[in-house]
Design a protein that fits this description.
With 527 residues, the protein is of the alpha/beta class. The protein has helices at 53-58, 60-66, 99-112, 131-139, 168-177, 179-183, 202-217, 234-247, 276-286, 293-296, 308-319, 324-327, 342-345, 350-360, 398-413, 415-419; strands at residues 15-18, 70-73, 77-78, 89-93, 116-121, 222-225, 252-255, 272-273, 331-333, 366-370, 421-428, 433-440, 443-450, 456-461, 467-476, 500-504, 507-513, 517-526.
């Protein structure tokens, strides 16, 4: 059996996902295009706000102080789309983002602060402005690049297509005929701007592997792979891993796979996947009473409401899916550019977001904060989940921000929360209480989550796990009700209002855990 190795730094990381056009505009970029949307206006599908990599670089201290140690950036390469999944040039950072010079500055500053950079790799399709595709459009079957894509050869010629910019009539044919017949080429999800690459072509494979190596050698610390299942070829992904790891053995490879991903997580392809299985479980449990059902349909493969027992069963199942090394490298997230904001899914219930972040910061894997979630941003499905980061601090929920900073700080101090084994302790569907332990060497943590709308008292038997002593209360969820917004400071650490806890004869008794809150305890531990 192959020994599995994932990058060691990921186990200690706290990620922050940034949609570059919407995070910050830097002061270093001259000749910014003039036709930009107002920063605070609702986003448009096609509009640009003008965020750039210089803006990210200028806010790295903010991110470091929040406890962030790694950035995952949505695509940054030259593209005509604000999301930049329509790649025109894989070797050039988009000029609107500041170009290659902005990338180099961002990497240099980030690395100096101990922050790593993971790029978004879109390798299954290009944009229709991609040079090789344009070459084939101009020259038809005579183009040396005709085999880079999946063309209908009968439609390659003057007056016969392909139809990369279809008329309204031809666009209507796509639904009935599919892109190959209607446009003359295979397009991703039959979208005309997105021609699919022919990765069976050795020249295409060499090109993509060189791109992968190039940006790692230039300073990137890993790749997030956009819908990698669209390249249904394990040999390609094995070669991709080899190319990336040769450039940097500790580079991180994380795939966007929304379901069980065992095929790619055997140690020879990806290090991890975006853990959307956990995302959906968190929405279904922590937001079950306030869930916005219409928005829930926008989350991949839907959301089912769960009680504490059902949630615990699902988490146990996920923890058994992959090798421990993989589990500790998973990217655990509550939302992304592809889903409505968690706070909106939860119907504005701030306590659901607090509980969910407490959970993903304390389970195995690397937690990931979607930009702006830390200050209480809301938004429905695309494009509303891609709003600009609020420029006015008066709009920030600073209590939520302080709590996430406290969670990141605790995770950094407590090795058991980063590398410890995971043990379910209690899951009561009727009371709404869920508790688990993390054990590592001589320290342990117990996390108790009360999802109910009233206080709870509980007793946990710990003796089966080992001997415990020196109980301390590390973190209590801020109170502040179910509403959103506002500068709700709340409680961040143990204090007079912390639930009273007693440890005796291997049993932990916790009195009156407040409604919709969590408490984290740390112990000395002897296996």
């Amino acid at each position: 059996m192959q020994q599995i190795h994932t990058p060691d730094w990921v186990k200690d990381a706290v990620f922050y996902q940034i949609f570059p056009d919407r995070f910050a505009i830097g002061g270093a970029l001259e000749n910014k295009p003039a036709n930009l949307e107002p920063w605070d206006a609702p986003p448009d599908t096609f509009g640009f706000k003008g965020g750039d990599l210089y803006g990210i670089a200028e806010r790295l201290e903010y991110l470091r102080d929040l406890g962030i140690t790694a950035l995952y950036l949505n695509p940054i390469f030259q593209s005509p789309a604000n999301h930049r999944y329509h790649t025109q040039d894989y070797y050039r950072v988009d000029p609107i983002l500041g170009g290659d010079a902005a990338f180099d500055q961002l990497v240099q500053r980030a690395h100096a602060l101990g922050i790593r950079i993971v790029l978004d790799g879109v390798f299954n399709h290009t944009g229709r402005g991609f040079y090789q595709f344009q070459h084939a459009l101009e020259n038809g079957s005579a183009s040396p690049y005709v085999d880079w894509f999946h063309f209908d050869r009968t439609q390659l010629g003057p007056g016969r297509g392909p139809y990369a910019y279809p008329s309204a009539r031809r666009a209507r044919l796509i639904r009935r005929l599919g892109s190959r017949r209607a446009l003359g080429y295979d397009a991703w999800w039959d979208l005309p701007p997105l021609p699919k690459l022919n990765t069976d072509n050795p020249a295409v494979r060499r090109f993509l592997l060189d791109v992968a190596r190039y940006w790692i050698a230039r300073g990137a610390d890993g790749w997030r792979l956009d819908v990698p299942g669209e390249i249904d070829d394990d040999a390609f992904w094995r070669a991709f891993r080899t190319a990336v790891k040769q450039a940097n053995p500790e580079a991180y490879i994380v795939g966007e796979v929304w379901t069980d991903a065992g095929r790619w997580l055997q140690g020879d392809q990806f290090d991890a996947v975006m853990n959307y299985v956990v995302t959906r479980a968190c929405i279904g449990f922590f937001a079950r009473e306030s869930l916005d059902g219409s928005l829930a349909h926008a989350v991949g493969h839907g959301v089912q409401t769960l009680n504490a027992g059902q949630f615990a069963d699902e988490i146990d199942r996920v923890m058994r899916l992959y090798d421990t090394e993989i589990i500790q490298a998973q990217l655990n997230l509550l939302g992304s550019h592809d889903t409505p904001r968690f706070l909106s899914l939860a119907g504005g219930d701030r306590t659901a977001l607090l509980l969910a972040y407490t959970f993903i910061f304390t389970i195995p894997g690397a937690p990931c904060v979607y930009y702006g979630d830390e200050v209480g941003m809301t938004g429905g499905a695309d494009p509303h989940c891609r709003r600009s980061f609020p420029a006015r601090r008066a709009e920030w929920d600073t209590g939520l921000q302080h709590y996430l900073r406290a969670l990141a700080g605790l995770r950094q101090r407590a090795a058991c929360l980063r590398r410890g084994t995971f043990h379910r302790l209690r899951a009561d569907g009727r009371s709404g209480v869920y508790a688990f332990a993390r054990l590592y060497r001589d320290e342990a943590a117990v996390v108790v989550l009360n999802s109910a709308r009233r206080p709870r008292t509980l007793e946990l038997k710990l003796s089966a796990l080992g001997s415990f002593s020196t109980l301390s209360t590390e973190l209590v969820t801020p109170t502040g009700g179910a509403g959103g917004g506002g500068n709700k400071a709340g409680r961040e650490t143990a204090g007079e209002a912390a639930p009273q806890a007693q440890l005796h004869d291997g049993r932990l008794r916790v009195a009156l855990i407040p409604a919709r809150s969590a408490v984290i305890y740390r112990f000395c531990f002897t296996p």
